[in-house]
Amino acid sequence: MPDQRADADTAVRNTHRNPGMALELDWVEAARVNLSAAERRAATLTTRRSVKKEYQAAWLVKSITCMDLTTLAGDDTPGRVQRLCAKARRPLRDDLVEALDLADRPPTTGAVCVYPTMVAPAVKALAGSGIPVASVATGFPAGLTPLPQRLAEIRYAVGEGAAEIDIVINRAQVLNRDWAALYDEVKAMREACGEAHLKTILATGDLKTLRNVEAASLVCMMAGADFIKTSTGKEDVNATLPVSLVMVRAIRDYQARTGERVGFKPAGGLRTAKDAIAWLILMKEELGRPWLEPELFRIGASSLLADVERQLEHFVTGRYSAGHRHAAA
Ligand SMILES: O=C[C@H](O)COP(=O)(O)O
C-alpha cells in the first residue's frame, strides 16, 4: 500500500505559525463569490474524481492521521475522554494494522479535541504518544460570553496543557461587517494562545453568504489564525463542500499574497469514509500535497472514525462487520 502516513513524534504538529498581518480592509471588502460556480466546482470533486482500491485504503489511513478525534458533549466525563484517547492512540485494530503493512509505524489520530475542563485528563491519557490535545474555547459554541472571559478560557485551556485552541468567532461581527472588531478580537485570542496553535471556527452555517465566509476567512488569517475551521458541529448546517471550497481558496489567496501557509479544518457532520475522501480530494486539487498532512489539514469529527475503520476492514477482509463493533468514535 502506498505510504502516506504522517509523522506523529511530537505533541505539537506544526512548529510554524502564521504571524498574521495588518488588517487590509480593501482586500476583505473585495470578497466576491459566485455561488453557482462554487456549487458546480464542489460537485465535480465527488463525481469527476474517485480514488480506488489500495489508494483508497491509503487515503483512509491518511484521513485518520488528519483527524481531530472529538468529544464535545454536555455529558463528557474524564472516563469518556480516556476511552477516546485510547482510540486516538490506536485507531485501528492490530490485525488491520498488520494487514495494511503499517506495523512499523502504526497510525494515530491528528489530535484529540475536547472542552477545556477535559484537557487535563486528555493530556494525561495521551502522555508520551505525541498526540496533541486541542481544546475548544471562547464560549463554544455560541461565543457570546464577554471578551475577558473568552480570553481567560483560552489561557485556562493552555495552562491545562492544550497545544491547540479552537476558538469560535463572534458571528454578529461578520453579519454587521465589522471587520476591525473581528480582527481585534481574533488577534487578542491569538495572543492569549501563547505557543498554542490557533484554529478559528467561522460557524459558516450562521454567516448567511459565501461572501461573508470568504471575508471572515481573510480577516481571521490576517489576525494570525494558524487554521481556519468551518463549524462547531452545533449549527444547523455544518461543513459543506461549497463553503470549504471558498475557505481553501481564501487560504490559497492568502498564501499567494503573504507566503504563509494556513491550515484548514472542516468539522461538523462528517461521518462517512466517503466524506473523508471528498475533503482529501478538495485539499489535493485546490491546495496541493502540503495540505494533505496534519500540519495543515484536520478533519474535526466525533463519529467518522468508525466508518473509516469499517471500510478499511472491508478492504482487508472483503467483508463488512456490524457497526456496533466500531462503537468508539
Ligand atoms: O469540531 C468538531 C465538531 O464538533 C464535530 O462535529 P460532529 O460531532 O458532527 O462530528
TrEMBL record:
The keyword Lyase is annotated on this UniProt entry: yes
Taxonomy, superkingdom: Bacteria
Keyword terms, alphabetized: Lyase, Schiff base
Primary enzyme class: lyase
Catalytic activity: 2-deoxy-D-ribose 5-phosphate = D-glyceraldehyde 3-phosphate + acetaldehyde
InterPro entries, A to Z: Aldolase_TIM, DeoC, DeoC/FbaB/LacD_aldolase
CDD domains: DeoC (cd00959)
GO MF assignments: deoxyribose-phosphate aldolase activity
Pathway annotation: Carbohydrate degradation; 2-deoxy-D-ribose 1-phosphate degradation; D-glyceraldehyde 3-phosphate and acetaldehyde from 2-deoxy-alpha-D-ribose 1-phosphate: step 2/2
EC code(s) of this entry: 4.1.2.4
Pfam families per UniProt: DeoC
Transmembrane region(s): none
Family: Belongs to the DeoC/FbaB aldolase family. DeoC type 2 subfamily.
NCBIfam families in UniProt: deoC (TIGR00126)
PANTHER family: DEOXYRIBOSE-PHOSPHATE ALDOLASE (PTHR10889:SF3)
Name the UniProt record assigns to this protein: Deoxyribose-phosphate aldolase
Organism this protein belongs to: Inquilinus ginsengisoli
